[in-house]
Amino acid sequence: MRVPAAEAEIARARMLPLAPTGFEEVELGGTLELAAYTDAEGAERIATAFGSVSSTAVEPGWEERWREFHRPVRAAGLWIGPPWEEPPAGWPAVVVEPGRAFGTGAHPTTRACIELLAGRARGSVLDAGCGSGVIAVAAARLGFAPVLAVDADPVAVEVAVDTARRNGVEIEAWAADVLTDELPGVDLVVANIELHAVERLLIRRPASCVIASGYLAHETAAAPGWERVARYELEGWAADVVHAMT
User: Fold this and answer.
1) Which residue of 30, 153, 196, 211 has the fewest C-beta atoms within 10 A of its own C-beta?
2) pLDDT value for 241
3) Does a structural domain hold residue 131?
4) How many domains does the structure of the chain reveal?
């Protein structure tokens, strides 16, 4: 199925429960094509969710082709990749199993957040909307502590805990809605979520410093009482460091 590029994040989130073992993405100008391997029932569920879709028969070996999409990336001196890839010698690794929760580390907003995170003073950090826990584990790798993580999806919380365990780091994760539930006091919050959710979160003043992302480079989170002090742009996406104004 194909969706406008502006709806890519929503489409990915919608695809996750429909194709939990992974799906492919191809950028086609102003659109994004998503492709999943499934059976007739799965194709019907996807068609119901997205409307117009097309399907073709697959050739032998399709079971492993989805792995070709998940390639290692690097951010702030960290190697981030799937478990079947080998990190280069000397690089601290963040190993992420793709599939059950959003976030493999490859998306530009994730890498931009990690780049900005590396430049902040070490202390306590909350990954607000943690998904697979990539940013939380990266924070632990970079020396932040304690590292806390929340997500409204209990499955994402389980995956984040598994990701931390796989990487041998400690995080505390639990299910919570970052827009309505009580959040712990921390030195820094990282919110790589959707633009309007970022704006609603900032209104809550979850910390004096927030790294916010999940939106395009031409967009800015609009929330009163905050000052942008740094920005990192990558492949048309942006992440900002904002400070609460006194």
Assistant:
1) 30
2) 98
3) yes
4) 2
Strand 73-75 with 31-35, pairing = unpaired
Maximum CA extent, the chain? 62
Q: What is the pTM of this model?
A: 0.75
Strand order in the sheet with 93-95: 73-75, 78-81, 93-95
126 and 181 in a common domain: yes
Do 118 and 240 sit in the same domain of this protein? yes
Tell me, yes or no, whether 190 and 115 share the same domain: yes
Query: Could you tell me the residue range of the domain that residue 176 belongs to?
Result: 101-244
Query: DSSP string covering 170-212, please?
Result: --EEEE--TTTS-----SEEEEES-HHHHHHHHHT--SSEEEE
Distance of CA 138 to the CA centre of its chain: 12
What integer is the mean pLDDT of 46-57?
85
Q: DSSP letter at 57?
A: P
How would residue 211 be classed by pLDDT, with cut points 50, 70 and 90? Answer: very high
pLDDT at residue 201 in the model: 97
Q: Are 30 and 4 in contact (CB under 8 A)?
A: yes
